[in-house]
Every structure is written in C-alpha cells, then in structure tokens.
C-alpha cells in the first residue's frame, strides 16, 4: 500500500473513532520533523537551509512550544563545543568568573539583561554621525516613496523606520570593535553553550511617523525565529525615554513552554498589547529605557516589540549571535577588516565566529 493510501486509511479510521485532531497533529508533527531532518542534512552538505525545512522548523517550534528547538540546540552544542576565548572583559565590564554565571542565569530566567556598563559616549557619537549620513532604506516600503534616503532627525520623517544598510555598517570600526569584544563574545558563548556565530547586524532609526503601531516596524509583540538559538545585543545609540520608543519584552516568555499555545497557533504573527495582557501579568511587561550607550542582551525568542516613538526618534544598533547558521537567510556578506585588528585576529583563531562573512583583511 502506498504512503498516501496508508494516510487516507488512517484518516478514515480516525474519523470513525472521533480522533481526527490527534491524528492530524501526529501527521503534521512527523511531516515537520522529517523536513527539518532533511534540511539539517542538506545544511551539513551545502551550508544552506532549504526554505521549506526552515518553515517547518518554525511550525515545529510553535507545535512543541519550544521543545523542538531545545533538542536541535542540544545537538548543535554536542557537535560544536565552546572555543577558548580571552577573558570576558570589555565594553560590558568585567564579566569573568561568577559574574558571567550571574548574567547568564538572569537571561535564562528573565530573557534579558541590562548591563550597568555603557558604550562610551564617543562611540555613540560616531555611530550617530554615521547613521545620519548613511543612505538608509525606508521601512515599510510604500509605493511612490523612494527606496532609500538619509534620515534627518530635524525634518519630518516619511516612514516608520530608516535602516542603515548592514553592508556599510559592517565596515564601521566601532561596530567591528563591538563584534570582537571579549565581553560580548564571552556572554554570547556562555549563554549559547557553543561557539557563538556573529550572524546579523542592523542599525535603524525609529521615527514618530504614523499614528499607530506598524507591523513591519516590529511595533507589535512577536517572537523571532531566524535560527535555532541566538542572543541579541541592543545598543541604544541615543537616550531612550518612555516616549521615544523603548524596547519592550515580556519577561520569561522566551522559556520553553513560556508562550501560550493559543498565541503560538497563529505562527509568526504580530500580537496587540491587549491580547498579550490576557496571558501575562502586568509585572511581566518590561519597557527598557536608558541613556545613550545602554546595552541589553536579550533572547528574542521571547515576545518583544519596539514601542512606537511619540516625541522623538530612536537610534538602535543590534548585533545577533547564533548557535549555528541553520535556519533563515544566511547569505554571506563581505566584511573588510584591517590586518592585525582584533576582529582579524579573532577571526583567524576562531573562524566559526565570523563564518557568516567573507572576510578580507587589508
Ligand atoms: O525596535 C525594537 O525595539 C524591536 C526590534 C525587534 O523586534 C528585533 O530586533 O527583533
């Protein structure tokens, strides 16, 4: 009997026994598991994840309320051990010894950690200057509007978000310093339990444009699911107050089983605040404000959003480290580094960390 005939027979028997939902769920589960396993094999052979396997990884995550990613992550950590990094002392302060354990425990329990140390004011000033001159991409895209233009904080914005292109941001020395900072790499490695892979970089202006939360601007609650496990570092380049778009997070919602099935059944959806309030206590809703230079580490598998700025724009830099490149888009990006710079040296010693990039030392 063919597989299709077996499935049809199973469906008919299930209907007669009144257990159709359970059978459908078992069939969906086995379809998703086999697609992810096929994808993992393809990834190991080619370095690319078939899009269908990635979609099924997300579906499986929602179906199992996170357990499937935990299993995948455990397999990744068995195959890829942490690497011998320098002492985790740097822009996040001294994160060595017991302090590292304390930070990681806090991220494991609450999903985020706000570092008391900040990025120096000179770095923030250079990044802000860069973001002001850069040709930014407008988000969301709207017909009749230019695709790219610089953002002038003194002029009326014409889009919610102005993204600084990552290709040019990657060449910025301050960014390269953060991406190779021993405390950043140390915290990422300790949280991920494997050599961290610098996977994504972005910097964007969130403006006061618009009257309501915009989904393309990530202004309603959602979870990320680009890879199996990851940690994001958000850097506030300018002061963030309650009315200039604080980043918001639901404490504990990154944990396995920490997201209600009713919300996960919607898949990769954006969810309004009042709906979230049905599932989480008031004290779980965290709004992060802070002066320029504030650095937050966060597992954005938990529900989060950027609150729509009301009185002034916000500028945020974000670096993401993942346990592997299995999952969503991981097209290689060119990265020019000065020969002998910290990033160049780290990349030569631990090439997995920057394996997303085509590094040219010059
Ligand atoms: O703008 C924000 O604070 C939210 C950003 C976000 O959703 C993300 O980077 O995953």
Outline of the structure:
With about 350 residues, this protein is α+β, with helices and mostly antiparallel strands.
How is the largest sheet built, in terms of strand order? 3-11-8-13-7-6-4-5
| Ends distance | 63 Å
The number of helical elements comes to 12
Oligomer: single chain
User: Fraction of residues in helices?
Assistant: 25-40%
Topology order in helix (H) and strand (E) letters: HHHHEEHEHEEEHHHEEEHHEEEEEHE
Classify the secondary structure makeup into a structural class. Answer: alpha+beta
How many whole angstroms does the radius of gyration measure? 22 Å
| Percent strand | 15-25%
Q: How is the biggest beta sheet arranged?
A: 8 strands, antiparallel
Shape by Cα distribution = globular
Low-confidence stretches: none
Mean pLDDT comes to: 95
Strand runs, count: 15
Unique ligands: 2-oxoglutaric acid
Describe the structure.
The structure is a single chain. The chain contains twelve helices and 15 strands. It is globular and about 70 Å long. Helix 1 runs antiparallel to helix 2 and helix 5 packs across helix 9. The strands form four sheets. It has an eight-stranded antiparallel β-sheet. Strands 10-9-12 form a three-stranded antiparallel β-sheet, with no helix packed on it. The structure holds 2-oxoglutaric acid. The site of 2-oxoglutaric acid has 9 residues, from strand 12.
């Amino acid at each position: 009997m063919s597989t299709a005939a077996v499935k049809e027979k199973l469906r008919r028997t299930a209907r007669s026994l009144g257990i159709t939902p359970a059978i459908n769920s078992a069939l969906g589960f086995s379809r998703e598991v086999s697609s992810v396993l096929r994808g993992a094999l393809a990834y190991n052979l080619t370095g690319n994840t078939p899009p269908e396997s990635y979609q099924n990884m997300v579906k499986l995550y929602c179906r199992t309320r996170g357990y499937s990613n935990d299993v995948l992550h455990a397999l990744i950590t068995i195959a890829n051990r942490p690497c011998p990094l320098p002492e985790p002392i740097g822009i996040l302060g001294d994160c060595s010894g017991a302090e590292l354990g304390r930070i990681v425990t806090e991220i494991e329990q609450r999903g985020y950690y706000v570092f008391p140390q900040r990025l120096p004011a000179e770095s923030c000033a250079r990044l802000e200057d860069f973001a002001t001159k850069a040709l930014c991409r407008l988000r969301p895209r709207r017909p009749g509007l230019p695709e790219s233009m610089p953002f002038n904080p003194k002029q009326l914005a014409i889009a919610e978000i102005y993204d600084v292109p990552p290709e040019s941001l990657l060449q910025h020395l301050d960014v390269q310093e953060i991406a190779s900072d021993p405390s950043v790499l140390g915290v990422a490695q300790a949280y991920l339990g494997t050599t961290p892979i610098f996977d994504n970089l972005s910097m964007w202006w969130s403006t006061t444009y618009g009257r309501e939360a915009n989904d393309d601007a990530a202004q309603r609650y959602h979870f990320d699911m680009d890879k199996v496990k990851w940690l994001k570092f958000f850097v506030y380049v300018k002061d963030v107050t309650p009315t200039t778009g604080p980043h918001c997070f639901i404490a504990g919602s990154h944990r396995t089983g920490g997201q209600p099935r009713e919300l996960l059944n919607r898949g990769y959806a954006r969810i309004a605040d009042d709906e979230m309030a049905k599932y989480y206590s008031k004290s779980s809703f965290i709004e992060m404000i802070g002066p320029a230079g504030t650095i937050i580490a966060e597992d954005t598998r938990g529900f989060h959003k950027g609150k729509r700025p009301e009185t002034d724009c916000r500028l945020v830099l974000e670096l993401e480290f993942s346990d592997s490149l299995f999952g969503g888009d991981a097209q290689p990006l060119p990265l020019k580094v000065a020969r002998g710079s910290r990033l160049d040296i780290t990349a030569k010693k631990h090439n997995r960390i920057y394996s997303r990039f085509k590094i040219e030392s010059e």
